[in-house]
Write a structure and sequence with these properties.
The chain is an alpha+beta fold and 737 residues long. It is built from 26 helices and 11 strands. It has a 4-stranded antiparallel β-sheet with strand order 2-9-10-11, with no helix packed on it. Strands 1-3-8 form a 3-stranded antiparallel β-sheet. A two-stranded antiparallel sheet has the order 4-5. Helix 5 packs antiparallel against helix 21 and helix 5 runs antiparallel to helix 23. The radius of gyration is 41 Å and the shape is globular.
Length: 737
């Protein structure tokens, strides 16, 4: 007892300290919320967030892709095998309770493998989406643990926040920004209501750490899965992770706070520091483009990342240019020093210097002559002659170095020399110029260049004119840079370099040889200007600031709509990839899975094409389609868990999965109760080939395989035979009349 009591007191003190720390962090963050909420409510909310953030108990789907986000119930309880025998049994020998006949499973005439569903439903609460959504989704969220929700349910709950009945404050709420909705004061002062509870600061820090940590691998998942149009690519991209975390938070205030912290992270830790965004496309040296098939929100994030890369390239280019300029300045300074030393008369000065040396030698000669030393006299003359020749050679070399270059065709803004020669000056190679990077446009910015016309024809004309204006600006920039790098080049040389397909068989193409064509006119008007001296076609700093301002001040209603669309695509990709993994679809997608994916993708694409106009029923229908894919994936995962990893049994998993999926979709098409139909659907796999039976018997984990047959005589139904098959893995009791 003396040894236990100190340990008990220490544990009690640590638990009290942890609870006090959690409460204080929550109270400090939500000061106004404390004035309007009770201690009991805050304690329950903290317990909910902490219990949902980590789950210590193991689950059947811990190894599945979705395990980080949700925990799905196991759809199948067991996998059982029926072994049917055909024998002639003498009925007069049977007693009322039957006779026992033992036989090996190898002697069975037919095998049937069945997947037995669990008693409970796979997914609850959202099954009513086939008809009408649940009446009170918030009541369902309070009564169930957070980690027990499926991704389809979380999508439905999050999208329902958009359409909650807020009475006379609906317009005020729909126009508010994320910064306003995240604050307690806005809820209390403007709406006059208690703000929804936000997660603790530690939960938010964990989310940001997950979002911005270094991710090694392909951020788009697998290329075989095509994402839902107008959302985002894959489930590992940055916005996909944000949407998944947002759906787990469920209420609008918590999602708004997450979005605020996300945008601050973008500005202060990436934009201002010049750090590229994580979980984005890896282009290497290739120029980053914006994917117009994604939603506007994802396009803006891609544009921000492209602006960061452009700034880095400009910074590297400026540093490289400065180094080159510094090295050239050093050479020029050295040449100027030589020029100052050897102005006109440099040869005469050298001669005078040489003469001075000779006179010095003559002085020695006179001294030697006085001493009558003939050998010393010869050596002195030879030394004086050698010094004179060396001084004249040095002077000639210095004069040659000091002469300026006389090449009239030397250009500026040159990147490298090509192996092509100018047509009119074959002795000169074409120099590739430094060019401006082309502008980056999102779909929204392209539409901004086009004013809506009165009819479709006028709008098409303006679209063509806008595209032509953009391409002409880029073309003129390239022409100016080319003429700066190649001052004596002509129009034909530019066409050979810029558009080789328009120079064939030694002459220009028809469109380039027409008098007064656009290219020739623009080339004549272009002034030789290096790319560094031209007006920027695309200002990455201005564009990056514009994107950040848009993300920080956009209406939260719009942000939440896009996050729900991206979250639906992330869930779709997660379940599709999981299903492919468990079905072992290495090279191609299973035809049945592809069919169901196309159905889900088509329904969701119609909803998210114009997500700003989508209604509550549209989001509910999208969530229902995601739920069907979710059930399809959970079946494949459960079958893989029960049957095992042996590749020889893949055909068993595939047949059981196909049978159960087809039967559920058929029941859904017949407008039956979806949840009841799903719970009752089991997979059936009949083995009629001897080689298939042999594979099953060889790979089931049972050392003893025995079959027991009971024969019972009933007065009303005649004779029934009960077949019992038992092994360590498979157990099944069946009857045939």
């Amino acid at each position: 007892r003396q040894r236990i009591e100190p340990i008990f007191r220490r544990v009690l003190f640590i638990n009290m300290l942890r609870a006090a720390t959690r409460r204080s962090s929550s109270y400090n963050r939500c000061s106004s919320s404390n004035r309007c909420s009770s201690n009991t409510h805050d304690t329950n909310s903290i317990t909910e967030w902490s219990s949902s953030s980590s789950s210590s108990s193991p689950s059947w789907d811990d190894e599945q892709i979705w395990s980080q986000w949700v925990c799905l119930p196991d759809p199948f309880d067991s996998i059982e095998i029926d072994c049917f025998f055909e024998r002639n049994v003498e009925l007069h020998n049977c007693v009322s309770d039957g006779d026992l006949v033992e036989d090996g499973l190898d002697n069975a005439n037919m095998y049937t493998i069945r997947s037995i569903p669990n008693g409970g439903g796979l997914v609850g609460g959202i099954a009513a989406l086939s008809g009408a959504p649940p009446a009170d989704i918030s009541q369902m969220s309070r009564n169930r643990p957070q980690h027990s929700f499926s991704l389809a349910e979380l999508l439905h709950i999050s999208s329902s926040e958009i359409f909650l009945d807020r009475g006379e404050n609906f317009d005020l709420y729909s126009l508010a920004s994320a910064n306003e909705i995240a604050s307690d004061e806005w809820w209390i002062d403007r709406l006059g209501t208690h703000p929804p509870h936000a997660p603790p600061e530690a939960v938010m820090e964990d989310i940001l750490l997950d979002l911005f940590q270094d991710f090694i691998g392909e951020c788009h998942g697998i290329d075989a899965i095509a994402s839902i149009p107008k959302t985002a690519r894959g489930y590992q991209s940055l916005l996909s992770r944000v949407s998944l975390h947002a759906m787990k938070l469920k209420n609008s205030r918590a999602i708004a706070e997450l979005w605020n912290k996300f945008t601050k992270e973008l500005r202060y830790k990436h934009w201002e520091r010049g750090v590229p965004l994580p979980r984005m496309s890896k282009h290497g040296s290739k120029e980053i483009e914006v994917d117009h098939s994604a939603c506007i929100l994802d396009q803006q994030l891609q544009l921000l990342n492209a602006c960061i890369h452009r700034r880095l390239r400009q910074s590297e280019g400026a540093t490289r240019t400065k180094k080159e300029s510094d090295s050239k300045d050093v050479v020029k300074r050295n040449l100027l020093k030589l020029k100052k030393k050897e102005k006109p008369g440099v040869l005469n000065e050298s001669k005078r210097n040489a003469s001075a040396c000779v006179w010095k030698a003559d002085d020695d000669l006179d001294l030697n002559a006085l001493l009558n030393d003939d050998m010393a006299l010869a050596a002195a003359n030879a030394s004086a002659s050698q010094k004179t020749e060396e001084m004249f050679e040095d002077a000639r070399d210095d004069v040659m170095l000091a002469e300026p270059s006389s090449n009239e065709d030397e250009g500026f803004g040159v990147k490298s020399a090509l192996e092509m020669r100018l047509l009119e000056h074959p002795h000169v190679f074409i120099r590739e110029p430094e060019m401006q990077l082309h502008p980056i446009y999102t779909e929204e910015s392209l539409h901004a260049l086009i004013e809506d016309g009165d009819d479709e024809g006028e709008r098409d004309t303006k679209r063509r004119n806008a595209r032509l204006a953009v391409s002409n600006d880029m073309l003129v920039s390239d022409m100016c840079a080319f003429k700066a790098a190649n001052p004596i080049a002509g129009f034909v040389d530019f066409v050979r370099w810029h558009s080789p397909r328009d120079f064939l068989e030694g002459k220009l193409s028809e469109r380039m040889s027409k008098p007064g064509n656009t290219w020739e006119t623009l080339f004549k008007e272009a002034e030789p200007t290096a790319a560094s001296d031209q007006k920027l076609l695309f200002d990455p700093i201005a564009e990056g600031e514009r994107v950040l301002h848009l993300l920080e001040t956009a209406k939260f209603d719009t942000i939440l709509r896009y996050l729900c669309a991206i979250g639906a695509n992330a869930a779709f990709c997660i379940y599709a990839k999981s299903c492919m993994n468990n079905l072992r679809c290495a090279e191609s997608i299973h035809p049945l899975l592809e069919e169901k994916m196309q159905r889900c993708r088509g329904v969701c694409a119609s909803v998210f094409y114009d997500v700003k106009q989508a209604q509550k029923e549209d989001f509910a229908q999208a969530a229902y389609e995601i739920q069907l894919i979710e059930r399809t994936a959970s079946r494949a995962a459960s079958l893989r868990k029960h049957v095992g990893e042996k590749s020889e049994l893949n055909f068993v998993i595939e047949r059981l999965w196909i049978d159960s999926v087809q039967r559920e979709y058929e029941s859904q098409a017949n407008e039956e109760d979806v949840d009841a139909a799903f719970n009752a659907v089991d997979g059936v796999c009949a083995l009629s080939k001897d080689e298939e039976r042999h594979v099953v018997l060889e790979n089931i984990a049972a050392k003893q395989k025995l079959a027991c047959e009971y024969e019972i005589e009933e007065k009303t139904k005649g004779v029934s035979r009960l077949h019992v098959s038992a092994s360590a893995r498979f157990v099944r009791v069946s009857s045939i009349s």
